[in-house]
Structures are given as C-alpha cells and as structure tokens.
Design goal:
By secondary structure, this protein is of the alpha/beta class. The chain has a single domain, classed as FAD/NAD(P)-binding domain (3-Layer(bba) Sandwich), CATH 3.50.50.60. It contains twelve helices and 19 strands. An eight-stranded mixed β-sheet has the order 5-4-13-14-15-12-17-16.
Length: 391
C-alpha cells in the first residue's frame, strides 16, 4: 500500500512537494487554508537547482509559457548606475547546469503547480488547527471540522507555521530590521526606460532595489528593500504609499526612481526570520520551506530551497518506504546544512548590498569587478546541486 502523506500548506513549497511525492508513488493530499491556491502579486526568481526539479515533474511547457528567461544579471551602483557586475544567465546557464533560470509572477507559478495536482488531492479552505499522533499515524484537524489521517504529515505552512507551533511549541519570528516595498508595473508605463530582460540589482546605502520582467514580459516586478529599525504594525504586510518609497530612494538613479514612480500601488512587507530550529522532525511530523528555514530574500533562494526539500523528501520516502522514521531523519541530515548555509549567505548579502559609501563599499565594488560572486564557478555549489539524488 502507498504511504499516505498530508501536506499542510499549498504555497510553492507545499505544492511542489505534493507533486514530487505523488510522482514518487505516495498517496498525497495538500491542504491549504486559503480559498484558492495562489500567491500574492509579486515576482520570484527560480534558479537551475530548482527548475531542474520542476522539469522532472513535467512542468517545462507550462514554465516556458508563463516564465521569463533572463539573459543575465546586472548589478549596479545606486546613484550613478556604474556597473559592479554583469554575468550571463540565459542559454549559458542552461548549458552549464542543465536547467534554465526563470522569472515568474508568483501567481503564475502557484497556478501552474496547482494545475498539475489532481483536483481531488488539492483541498482549499482547510486551515490546520490541530495535530494528533496515534502510533504510526498522524491525524490533522482543520478549522472547517474536517480531519485527515496519514503516515506522514509535512508542515509546508510558511514562516508562521502552525505545524511548527503545534509540534515544537510556539515561538515568534523576529523582525530582521528590513522592510520591502513591492510593486508590479505594467510594461506600457515604462516603455521609455527600455529595460533589458536581465535580473537587475541596484546597491546603495541602507537599501537595494531588485527588478525583473514577469508574466511573459507584461509586468516588471520591483522590490525595494531598506533597513528600518523597528516594525510596530500589527500586520506583516500593509498597503504602502508610493510617495514614501520615492522619498526613501531620493538621489537614486533615474531608472530606479522611474520604476517606483510608475507603481500602480505598493505593499510594504516586514521581513522576519527565525533562529535555526534544532530539529525539523518530531515523530511522523516534519517541516519544509519557510516553516523550518525562513531566510532573507537576498539570495533569492527561499522558494528554491523549499522545492529542493520536497524533492529530497520524495526521493527518501520512495527509497525507504518501510522505514519512515529513518527517511525523515535522513531528510533532515541532508537538507539542513544546505538550507542553513543559504540562510547565512542571505544575511551576509544583506550587509554587502546595504553598505554605506566608504572604504568597505569600495572594497566590495573592487571585489565584484575582479572576482564576482555571480560567475558560474562561484555558483556551482548552488546551481549544480540535484536535491532529488543528493540523499
Ligand atoms: C521580497 C521577497 C522576495 C523573494 N524572492 C525570492 C526569489 O526570487 N526566489 C526564491 O526562491 N525565494 C524568494 N523569496 C522567498 C520565498 O518567497 C519563500 O521562501 C517561499 O515562498 C516559501 O515557500 P513556502 O511554501 O515554504 O511558504 P509560503 O509561500 O509561505 O506558503 C505557505 C502556505 O501555507 C498556507 N498555510 C499557512 N498556515 C496554514 C494552516 N494553518 N493550514 C493550512 N494552510 C496554511 C499559507 O496560506 C500558504 O499558502 C522571497 C521572499 C521575499 C519576502
């Protein structure tokens, strides 16, 4: 009989894990609290270490239909726009790592993942409120009164994870001191800026700006991240004011200001993280993605790592169907060091990207020109990794 798995959370991590485990022969159901599978309106970069895993789930055509393949990366100074680093992506990254680099609108990526999951296995309006372990079985209880029984329960329910709270005890995520304004700009509003199809990153004192095309180049996704001492808002995300973003980016390059000025609307996000968890697994319950290793977005790897987690878990459950505890222990052993490393890389990038102009910034800029961190040699450890086989 197939191993029964209940995945809690239908974000990018939960949906891709559900697909990977179905492909590995598990009897999987995904439970999402929201009324439909979808993601907030913003962009997401999917690097080859993740796209190769999604390709194996049969998603290449859908990814090509919705995704944009950037030709490269362009990193620049905040004020004069001087190039700090330019590196190829496009066909070169695919030739080097066997899978492409994509930019997606999150809604498009979530929709194509959800569409690949048979309807009877995808359950919206199911907010998990309780977990009970009975011998080798786990029972999930939902707010709507429904319950589900499985051999394994996977918490893919994001940084606020209820599964984590229920299994490991409540612990509040910490404010990192960074906030992000996000905006999606229709192409026709910024045609005059003539922006290349690459991943753009502008670094400046106390903040940076990332932007790239999504939704078949109909929209430009723009993320402006700045240092800010405190966050007192009740909510983690709020509608923001375009005038506030423009004021914070006073003196920045006209392209950056032109993009911000073209925002139809903006939302502000308080970026949170958590101290690394000593364990991801308790009994038959395990975690993946932001539920166990939330990270700052400065390495663009949070979702990629969630996708890797699901692929590794699927391979291990397939390889060790009669030893679920062993498979879950191995899952944590193989995944934790890599996810932890990326949490650290993201934190280091935050400091690097936000250096005030001065000696340290000059040293950073010099290093980027002489030995950039975007060369394929520097990225090999990250992009060539195959999480489904590295178990
Ligand atoms: C500004 C910014 C830019 C980023 N850019 C990138 C990038 O370019 N590339 C990249 O790889 N990563 C990026 N990330 C990180 C990425 O967004 C996250 O790491 C990723 O979305 C985590 O996916 P997840 O499935 O683990 O969690 P989530 O996306 O948070 O999904 C969790 C799901 O669980 C559901 N849920 C929660 N509680 C319950 C419950 N009790 N019952 C049922 N369902 C529940 C939620 O509704 C949600 O659908 C970025 C993050 C930010 C903030």
């Amino acid at each position: 009989m197939s191993l029964q798995v209940a995945v809690i959370g239908g974000g990018i991590g939960g949906l891709s894990a559900g697909l990977a485990m179905s492909k590995a022969g598990c009897d999987v159901h995904v439970y999402e609290q929201a009324a439909k599978f979808g993601e907030i309106g913003a962009g997401i970069q999917i690097s080859p270490n993740a796209s190769r895993l999604l390709y194996r789930l049969g998603l290449k055509d859908a990814m090509d239909a919705w995704g944009v393949r950037p030709a490269g990366v362009h990193q620049r100074r905040w004020d004069d726009g001087r190039t700090l680093q330019r590196a190829p992506l496009g066909p070169a990254v695919e030739a080097a790592f066997g899978a492409p680099y994509y930019h997606f609108h999150r809604g498009d990526l979530a929709a194509l993942l959800a569409a690949a999951l048979p309807g009877e296995r995808a359950h919206c309006r199911h907010r998990l409120v309780g977990i009970e372990e009975k011998g080798a079985r786990v029972i999930a209880r939902f707010e709507n009164g429904a319950s589900a029984e499985a051999d394994v329960l996977v918490g893919a329910d994001g940084i606020h994870s209820r599964v984590r709270d229920l299994s490991f005890g409540p612990e509040k995520p910490r404010f990192t001191g960074c906030v992000a304004w996000r905006g999606l700009v229709p192409a026709e509003r910024i045609a005059h800026l003539d922006i290349e199809v690459v991943s753009h990153l502008w670094m400046g004192p106390g903040g940076h700006c990332v932007h790239y095309w999504v939704s078949a180049k109909r929209l430009m996704n723009v993320v402006c991240i700045v240092e800010r001492g405190t966050w007192t808002g009740e909510s983690w995300t709020d509608k923001g004011r375009v005038a506030d973003v423009l004021a914070r980016y006073e003196g920045w390059h006209p392209i950056v200001r032109g993009l911000i000025g073209a925002f139809p609307e903006t939302f502000i996000w308080a970026l949170h993280d958590r101290a690394p968890l000593p364990n991801w697994t308790k009994g038959r319950v395990t975690l993946l993605g932001d539920a166990c290793h939330p990270m700052l977005p400065m390495a663009a790897q949070g979702a990629a790592q969630a996708i890797e987690d699901g692929a590794a878990l699927a391979s291990l459950l397939e390889a060790m169907p009669d030893d679920v505890s062993g498979a879950l222990a191995r899952y944590e052993t193989v995944r934790k060091p890599r996810a932890t490393r990326l949490q650290q890389v993201s934190a280091v990038n935050r400091t690097r990207f936000h250096l005030p102009d001065g000696p340290e910034q000059q040293k950073r800029d010099e290093l980027m020109v002489t030995s950039g961190d975007r060369t394929f040699a520097a990225l090999n450890w990250l992009y060539e990794h195959d999480a489904a086989t590295a178990i």
